[in-house]
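Table 4 source record.
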Amino acid sequence: MGTTEGNANVSEVRDILTQAAARFTPQREAVLRALLAHSGSHQSAEEVLHTSREFCSDIGLATVYRTLELFAKLGIVHRLDTAEGQARFELNDSGADHYHHHVICLGCGEIAEFKEDLLDEIEKRAATSTGFQVMDHCLRLYGYCPRCIRDGRGSVSTHE
């Protein structure tokens, strides 16, 4: 699914939900529109709720959580569990060859992305040794962002 805002995305999600025998409710549309409004960011459920209320004023946090979990199960969004134990969600960009990777700050929770695909050889080895057909992968690296290091919240030691 592309991540540009517009009716094409809404109709794509409507089709995905229909194929999964799930209804496209006003609340689910509000969550989708909230995600589209902040495309490219990693939003918490609370942040999605805040923006969703612009499209559906009576939506509740439990509905947002259920919708985000459904969207993750259907591949509409990626769920990213951060170091602080909070899930963050971002729209799935099905046009990408592989899922992009994340560096997550242990100090402030900042998330940075990098798109270099360094795991192809590991995928091949895993497939050979397990017999699995590997379809994709995800890499999360945890450390301290430059701001936290500068502010003394992180360690500058390196692992080699």
